[in-house]
Design a protein that fits this description.
Oligomer: single chain
Radius of gyration: 16 Å
Number of helices: 5
Shape: elongated
Number of strands: 0
Bound molecules: protoporphyrin IX containing FE
Mean pLDDT: 95
Strand content: under 5%
Helix content: over 70%
Distance between the termini: 25 Å
Length: 124
């Protein structure tokens, strides 16, 4: 499987899990500590994979979008680690974290689309 596709799939899993962690209790679905641990570990993995697979590559223009997508998952990760180590807390910060995570997903999607186009049309 293509590495960028793996990154995208992991980000969608992260999004769905994060939404369930946040909104689940409203529907009477409270996940255990394990799912939060999994979301945290997956977040660390996603940030590392993004750094590796979105590095400058021959044949793919190194645009600002690609660079942003490469580093942006680190931003929600910093917030997430803050929650994990109880350095920060509170609903507004969790919502900011969620929006930053969705922004990371959007940037990776944009970078993946650009990579697909560049690979399909090497001369463009
Ligand atoms: C690249 C994207 C993301 C990364 C790196 C990331 C990372 C993390 C980490 C490390 C934690 C702490 C887990 C723990 O306490 O053990 C966390 C918590 C959380 N994340 Fe994410 N996350 C991402 C995206 C998202 C998204 C898209 C959502 C939802 C839309 C989300 C929702 C949450 C929620 C609700 C918590 C629990 C906060 C709390 O109440 O302590 N995350 N995240």
């Amino acid at each position: 499987m293509r590495p960028v596709l793996i990154l995208r799939i992991l980000l969608y899993i992260q999004l769905i899990l994060g939404l369930i962690i946040y909104f689940g209790p409203l529907a009477g679905l409270t996940l255990g500590r394990g799912s939060l641990d999994f979301h945290g570990a997956l977040g660390i993995l996603i940030a590392i994979i993004a750094l590796v697979v979105l590095r400058p590559t021959h044949g793919v223009p190194n645009s600002g979008v690609r660079t942003a997508a490469r580093f942006f998952p680190l931003v929600p990760l910093v917030f997430g680690l803050g929650f994990m180590f109880r350095l920060i807390s509170g609903n507004p910060l969790v919502i900011i974290h969620m929006l930053l995570g969705i922004a990371a997903l959007g940037l990776v999607e944009a970078a993946a689309a650009r990579q697909r186009r560049a690979v399909r049309q090497p001369s463009a």
